[in-house]
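Narrative summary of target 7.
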Amino acid sequence: MLNSIKDEQEADVSNGEAPSAQNAAKKSPFLRGGRVVVQTLLMLAVLVGSYAAMNRLIDTRAVREPRPVRPTIYTVETLPAQPQDNRPALQVYGEVQAARSVELRPLVNGEIIMVNADLKAGSPVTKGDVLLEIDPFNYRGALSEAKANLAKAQALLTEIEARIVAEKEQLLGAQTQLKLAQSDLQRAQSLVSSGNLTEKQVEDRRLIVSQREQSVSQSRNNQLIAEAQREQQVANIDSLSWKVEQAERNLQNTVLRAPFAGVVNSANAEPGRYVSSADVVATLYDDKAMEVRLTLTDAQYGRISTDADPLIGRAIKVIWVVGLSSYEYAGQIDRIAAEIASSRGGVELVALIDPTSAAVQLRPGAFVEVVVPDRLYPESYRLPETALYNGADVFVVQEGKLARRTVKVAAFDGEDIIVADGLQPGDRVMTTHLTQADEGVVVRQPGEAAAGTDGKSGKMAPASAGGS
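Modeled conformation, tokenized:
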């Protein structure tokens, strides 16, 4: 109604017919008051309707049951704790070296006239191979001279021995003549008393006896002198024989041969070079006798040394990584170094390697990994390292929930730990490293329903009613 009146006024104005001032003054208060009342009523109606609609919606909404609160269930892997004898392995590093090597020097002085074509670094040689030869001219002459002196001494010995034989025969003759002269003197003395012989004749026979005694003494002395000369000559022959042997050996030593089969490490010999016994012409090592030097820490050495099995003779594995390939060799601990390796903080060991246990030949200087068996831990438990928490705790699964166990870790073996105490045989140890691991956390194994669920949907099973 108000809007129609307003529209009529606007139409009159547009037609040029302005209402009179008296009519506008009479109608304006009523129109303004009615408009306010109508607007107020409309606002109240909207508010009342909205409130009624809201209450209706609240009264007719569906009632929802509260969802049951279920604990989070984690799927974990477990491992049964089984006591057994465990021996972890230590992984250390060492350097390969030759167990048998030699520096070759010429045993005689002279000019090198021949060198073996294989006498160069890295070349293999066999036992007895001629490596080089020294000019033998002077040594052949020395041998000839030594043999001549020996022959001369042997001839002189023969002469002395012949003289001894002659002196023995002459002594026998002189002794026979002395006996005859003594017998003649005795007869002459018996005839003096009868007057058949004179004193002068007896004195002549005494003179003859004296001469025979002197001849026997002279022959005996000559024999002794000849025997002494023979002993002297025998000693001289022994000396000359040694000189002959020395000359023969020097002649043999003009040829330098390989003392054993191996590999040439270095060579310094050329034809025309003059060498002496102080010059090193080559170095050789036995490629079938290799060893590795490794260092154990004081703790590792002390732990192994208390083991029932001796350290010396313990089998080891040597791993040599060459490019993208690795080769494994067998070996055993041979000895302990004479001194403590204080600079490396441990005890140095030497192990022999079997170089034929792999296809690739080891070389001295190779840096290798050595696996040494640690001490034996009887009746201990081997677990993955992922089962360990805070360095001394593990969790076992009991009735679908986690229970903490404080254990004593005896050793680490790669990705495993050796537990000496804190577990019972048959305990199911959680091996999955769970961030939320704690006492009472509900867990289950793959394909297994958690404790307190219906086993199908995973929902919590209803509690059984108590009593009858």
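The two ends are 81 Å apart (CA to CA).
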